[in-house]
Predict the 3D structure of the following.
Amino acid sequence: MDGTTIAEAFAAAVAGHADRPFLAVPAHQGRAYLPAGFEITYGEANRQIAALAALYRQAGYGVGHRVATLLENRPEHVLHTLALNSLGVCCVPINPDYRAAEIAYLVDHSEPDLVLTLDSRRPSIEAALAESGHRPSVSVAERFADTLAPASRPARNFKPLPGTPASILYTSGTTGRPKGCVLSHGYEVASGAWYAALGGAAGLRRGQDRIYNPLPLYHANAGVVSLMGAILTGNCQIQPDRFHAQHWWREVAETGATVVHYLGVIAPVLLKLPPGEDERQHKVRFGIGAGIEPELHAAFEKRFGFPMIELWGMTEMVRVLGDTVEPRQVGTRAFGRAVPGVDVRVVDDEGHDVEGERPGELLVRHSAETPRRGCFSGYLKDDAATEAAWQGGWFHTGDVVWRGADGMLHFVERKKNIIRRSGENIAAAEIEAILLTHPDVQQAAVMAVQDELRDEEVLACVVLKRAQAEKEAASALFQHCNERLAYYKAPGWIHIVPSLPTTGTQKIQKHNIYPAGTDPRGLPDVIDLRALKRRSNP
């Protein structure tokens, strides 16, 4: 399937499933858009996509252009993306939780020819462009035909090829600034085909499944894997605005979902809900995701009546692996075995294969002959980082795993300096850089600590330039970060310390800040700021 474009895949779905539902939004009276819900067939979606594509083409947009989109999880995101991809335009989705400086970086780095936004989000875009050196035109989705500016440079053509970039998704890296992962048409189509054919307890049935995915469309999970899986099988993607615990079972039941996507944070929240009728009125065949706590895995399946299939994947390589074949290894963080099309190694810090069930870094490739087939095209404007990630012909994932005697792989932790909070990868270096811009900060070290609800949380250890009240200082540092970074990146815990251990070259030794086995959250002078972390809506 990596020889096919997205437009060709969608055209085939329309030809075979024109009257079947393609995209649905569950009813939610508290939502700002479509409170009564929404559903569109493949045929009607095709007509709307063609109309949008005609406007883009008339304005001169095609291969070689990029359009940044700030459309949240609304149907407009999917329809505009498919219209743009049909012309060969590369889409750059913007995380709606980004602050102005973060959007400005994305715009400067990706250099879009146009920004498409919602009317409610336009102030965020204008604030970002005021800080950006690149100043593209801005169009508003609600007044699209009237606000679409002509392309400022000619398109190369209007027919994409499988290798044409379809999207650039930004993902946190260890150097602080997010990296732009370039995903081709062939990559995205192949990702959906792989997901649809997982088999065992998972996999999609042609024209029979409805996939409830509450995850963000600006990430690969909802925006690439499940969406393309649905298109390739003539199925429907159900797209709520985000995860809402109180509405989950009602929405799943009312929309007739047969597949649900999850993150580890979702399971404990749902298990804490009081029993209700909706939780057993559903038609769900399986859940698919990553990060469910081992001690909750079997309990969740028993209470709600369907298997939770643990996967492994990443934006750079969403040819996902999954523990799909019965008997599954429930409660062990198992996520599948190497299969044809995904070769696997587990190596130590020197790059040597580990023996037995010892943990090591997961390396992956397609095959010895074509190692990069089925993987992302590379990091935008960063060939050095791309080649470093592919050192030795294997992609270095940064995930620590162990492999059992039966070949089953089990997730342990992230190797790199990354904090994983509620499905978002957060670069510690990015937060450290922001903290060091505060006039009172001498040194800063940011790391992950465990969180019962959100997998991990951000802990910042800070050395101040002058003595001051610790709680007031911590609050000021939190606000400093929260004003400049997406809310989920701000430190949930801050520890004001007199010094930090360093090497002879003054590099901070994070592993020596606390004695082995210490949980910093239990120390009396570590300040809990998690209650201040709130998503802000426009």
In short: The mean pLDDT is 94.
